[in-house]
Amino acid sequence: MYLYQHWHNLKDKHKNLVVGLGNFDGLHLGHQKLISEVVTMAEQIGGTTSIFTFHPHPLAVLNPDNSPPLLLSQESKQKLLAGLGIDLLLMVPFDLAFAGMSPTDFVRNVLYGGLGASAVVVGYNYTFGYRGRGTPELLQNLSKTYGYQVKVIPPIMVDGKIVSSTLIRNLLLRGEVAEAAKFLGYYPFVEGPVVTGDKRGSSLLGFPTANIDIDDSILVPTNGVYLAKAQIHRESYLGLANIGVKPTFQVQKRNIEVHLLDFCQDLYGETIKVSFIRKIREEKRFQTPAELIKQIERDVLEARVTWSKIKE
User: Fold this and answer.
1) Of 28, 61, 105, 131, which is most buried, counting CB atoms within 10 Å of its CB?
2) Would residue 206 count as lying in a domain?
3) In contact, 91 and 74? CB cutoff 8 Å
């Protein structure tokens, strides 16, 4: 997959571009439907699949106090997009100058002038241009002038609810990771390097953990203990993930640590992906380390039993 941070003159390098437009935070089932349509249309016309999106998120520039936390890091998003069959990813920097571009100028200068788009695919509620005044209907109206096809993806429903990034964020903030997975199409996850922790898990508790460094802009599920799966070098391991502040030891900084079952290798410096499968319990303060050890033993047993039921 080619990665660009601009749109200028790309029509001279890549022919018959089919362009998917959106923010694609989380790459949930609605986004996946849109992307599959991009791939299908490109196959029909012998074209090139592409996604046009922004970094940072537009709200981080226009209304930073209300900018939502991201469901995926840029690196994770890029990996998933490549796996979905996208040839070109246009990760365009968003700034106030771009925010001032009118919807018609966006179509004329970007989609037509820079990309020479043969087809454009958007969601039913997509908006673009100055103050979000551009709509799918405007894209349709301008399509004859600028010679592209338009495909609008209707709402994708799961359990009677419209799939959306907002819905998924709210579920994660409640720790409902299994429910969020229904709308994502995969278990919610974080990905990052293993960093040095306080080593209390191995030295005091007998349950070594990997502490994961996550960017503050990424949404992490609410505090608690989770059944998790960790991916390391394409191998997967069952684990227990703890998200929180370790109240037993009065740690102030919120962190993520995972204890991998049946695993005893050094992970410092490795990048691992941790998927959250089920929430097992709330974070809790224990009076003594011994009480915590007994609880972790129960958590490990529950994790194994829960995972065996999920696999059935």
Assistant:
1) 28
2) yes
3) yes
Q: How many domains does the chain have?
A: 2
CB 245 within 8 A of CB 254: yes
Q: Residue 16 corresponds to which amino acid?
A: N
Instruction: Compute the distance between CA of residue 34 and CA of residue 16 in angstroms, rounded to an integer.
Output: 18
**Domain contains 168:** no
State how far the Cα of 189 lies from the Cα of 168, in Å rounded to an integer.
12
pTM: 0.91
* CA–CA distances in Å: residue 282 to residues 64, 230, 246, 278, 295: 31, 20, 12, 12, 12
Strand order of the sheet with strand 17-21? Answer: 2-4, 88-93, 48-55, 17-21, 119-123, 149-153
CA count, 13 A, side-chain hemisphere, 227: 21
CATH number of the domain at 226, please. 2.40.30.30
Mind giving me the DSSP string for 154-212? PPPEETTEE--HHHHHHHHHTT-HHHHHHHHSS--EEEEEEE----HIIIIIS---EEE
Whether 157 and 193 map to the same domain: the answer is no
Please provide the DSSP assignment of 16-73 as one string.
SEEEEES--TT--HHHHHHHHHHHHHHHHHT-EEEEEEEES-HHHHH-GGGPPPBSS-
Per residue in 98-143, pLDDT (tens digit) is 999 999 999 999 999 999 999 999 999 999 999 999 999 999 999 9
Confidence bin at 65 (pLDDT 50/70/90): confident
Q: What is the dihedral sign for C-alpha 177, 183, 185, 190?
A: negative
Q: SS3 for 124?
A: coil
Residue 80 has pLDDT above 80, yes or no: yes
Kindly state whether residue 170 falls inside one of the protein's structural domains. no
